[in-house]
């Protein structure tokens, strides 16, 4: 089921250019994550058994979404709220940063990567939906945002009401936002594997708007402040979950416990990556469906 009700102010007001520079102040990526736990046992989790046998964790992430999941090609450093959530889970499972292998996986390929056992879990702006739950499970939600619009500074588009048939909107293949546009709007769509390719299409006038979660768009707007802007109110609710192999209820329960009992760590991760605007964003309650 896709929900298209308005989200109000939740999470979106974090629209600060500062968000991207929040990692300053002397702390390196992941420093707010606790050290690896000792002697972890997860009786009955096949995913954890595989991690232990391998001696490491394979995590699916995004690598082109500043503030959320980003790889600095020059330094090799990964940063972002989602990446730190992934690090936190790995640490609580007993694994150090050196034991984490990151795999960048595009929106359209996430379920398959989990079903195939290519990754142990996925943390990357991954909305919990009923149709995805047919193939995989989700821990969380650990964050809530909503679909927004990124346009050029000189654009006439002010909100989703302007997504009429003469407008071309770009989004990622296999994402909830592109489906929402197809189902509920007259605008033309163009799609790529990643949102960063959509941003290039927008900058080259091949698209009139990029649509995805506002939390993602804020990062791109901050990268091109003279050129691009986020407009309008959010027009969906996107609840981010950790993608897990279907049926691994032990691992799902473990991560949900972590979110439920680890509010201070969640807050530290939020503050380090997205919190510089000073906007108060509440950690959502987990859904033990
Ligand atoms: N949260 C939305 C989704 O899961 C859009 C962002 C993304 O594609 O990662 O489809």
Q: Given the C-alpha coordinates, what overall shape results? A: globular
Helix and strand run: HEEEEHEHEHEEEHEHEHEEHH
Low-confidence stretches: 1-26
Tell me the Rg in angstroms.
Answer: 18 Å
Percentage of β-strand residues: 15-25%
CATH class label of the largest domain: Alpha Beta
Instruction: Give the strand line-up of the largest sheet.
Output: 10-9-11-8-12
The count of domains is: 2
C-alpha termini separation: 15 Å
CATH architecture of the largest domain: 3-Layer(aba) Sandwich
Describe the protein's architecture and organization.
The protein is α/β, with parallel strands linked by helices and 289 residues long. It folds into two domains: 27-145 and 238-274, D-Maltodextrin-Binding Protein, domain 2, CATH 3.40.190.10; 146-231, Periplasmic binding protein-like II (D-Maltodextrin-Binding Protein, domain 2), CATH 3.40.190. Helix content is 29%, strand content 21%. The protein contains nine helices and 13 strands. The chain has helices at 46-54, 81-92, 110-115, 130-133, 176-184, 195-203, 214-223, 249-261, 263-273; strands spanning 57-61, 64-65, 69-71, 78-79, 100-104, 121-122, 136-145, 147-152, 168-172, 188-192, 209-213, 228-231, 238-245. Strands 10-9-11-8-12 form a five-stranded mixed sheet, with helices on both faces. Strand 3 (69-71) and strand 4 (78-79) form a beta hairpin. Helix 2 (81-92) runs antiparallel to helix 9. The radius of gyration is 18 Å and the shape is globular. The two termini are 15 Å apart. Residues 1-26 have low confidence and may be disordered. Bound molecules: glutamic acid. Residues 107, 124-127, 172, 175-177, 212-213, 238 line the site of glutamic acid (GLU). Glutamic acid binds at residues 107, 124-127, 172, 175-177, 212-213, 238.
């Amino acid at each position: 089921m896709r929900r298209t009700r308005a989200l109000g102010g939740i999470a979106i007001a974090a629209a600060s250019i500062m968000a991207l520079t929040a990692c300053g102040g002397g702390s390196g990526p992941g420093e707010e994550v606790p050290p690896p736990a000792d002697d972890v046992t997860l009786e009955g989790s096949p995913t954890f058994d595989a991690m232990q046998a391998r001696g490491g964790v394979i995590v699916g992430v995004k690598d082109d979404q500043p503030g959320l999941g980003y790889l600095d090609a020059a330094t090799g450093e990964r940063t972002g709220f989602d990446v730190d959530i992934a690090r936190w889970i790995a640490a609580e499972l007993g694994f150090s940063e050196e034991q984490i292998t990151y795999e960048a996986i595009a929106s359209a390929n996430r379920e398959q990567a989990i079903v195939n056992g290519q990754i142990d879990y996925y943390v990357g702006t991954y909305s919990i939906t009923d149709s995805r739950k047919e193939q995989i499970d989700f821990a969380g939600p650990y964050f809530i945002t909503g679909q927004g619009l990124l346009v050029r500074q000189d654009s006439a588009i002010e909100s989703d009401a302007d997504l009429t048939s003469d407008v071309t909107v770009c989004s990622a293949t296999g994402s909830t936002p592109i489906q929402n546009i197809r189902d509920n709007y007259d605008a033309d769509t163009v799609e790529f594997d990643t949102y960063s390719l959509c941003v290039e299409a927008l900058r080259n006038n091949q698209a009139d708007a990029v649509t995805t979660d506002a939390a993602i768009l804020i990062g791109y707007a901050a990268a091109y402040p003279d050129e691009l802007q986020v407009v309008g109110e959010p027009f969906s609710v996107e609840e981010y979950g950790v993608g897990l192999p279907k049926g691994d209820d032990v691992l799902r329960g473990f991560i949900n416990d972590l979110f439920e009992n680890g509010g201070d760590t969640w807050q530290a991760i939020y503050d380090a990556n997205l919190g510089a605007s000073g906007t108060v964003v509440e950690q959502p309650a987990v859904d033990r469906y």
